[in-house]
Amino acid sequence: MKKLLFSLAVAGMFVFFACGPSEADKAEQARLDSIRIADSLALEQAKADSIAQIEKAKADSIAAQAVADSIEAAKKGGKKGK
Predict the structure, then answer these.
(1) Number of structural domains in the chain
(2) Mean pLDDT for all residues in the chain
(3) CA distance 32 to 35
(4) Could you tell me the residue range of the domain that residue 76 belongs to?
(5) H or E segment at 5?
(6) DSSP, res 21
(7) Are 28 and 20 in contact (CB under 8 A)?
(8) 8 Å CB contact between 29 and 21
(9) DSSP labels for 22-57?
(10) Per the domain annotation, does 44 fall within a domain?
(11) Would you state the pLDDT for residue 80?
(12) Residue 5 forms part of a structural domain
């Protein structure tokens, strides 16, 4: 009798674990995966935006320095002529 009960208990455990996750668990996992992917895409977009802002700031800085250099060169050139 003990062997029969033990065999039934083991078979019951196999049946229980073989069923797998429920539809609700699968839906929840799919929702969490979607959130993770959306967060990843948002992070990548934020990185791209930051890089674009840095590149624009560098270009603006270079342009401002070029203008300042031109003004300085014009001032130095103007003094020589006078």
Answers:
(1) 1
(2) 87
(3) 5
(4) 23-81
(5) helix 2-18
(6) -
(7) no
(8) yes
(9) -HHHHHHHHHHHHHHHHHHHHHHHHHHHHHHHHHHH
(10) yes
(11) 54
(12) no
